[in-house]
Amino acid sequence: MAEEKKPQQGQINIELDADVAQGIYSNLAIINHSQSEFVMDFVTIMPGVPKSKVKSRIVLTPQHAKRLLKALNDNIQRFESSHGEIKDYNQPPLPINFGPTGEA
Question: Which is nearest to 62 in space by CA: 33, 86, 89, 103?
Answer without folding.
Answer: 33
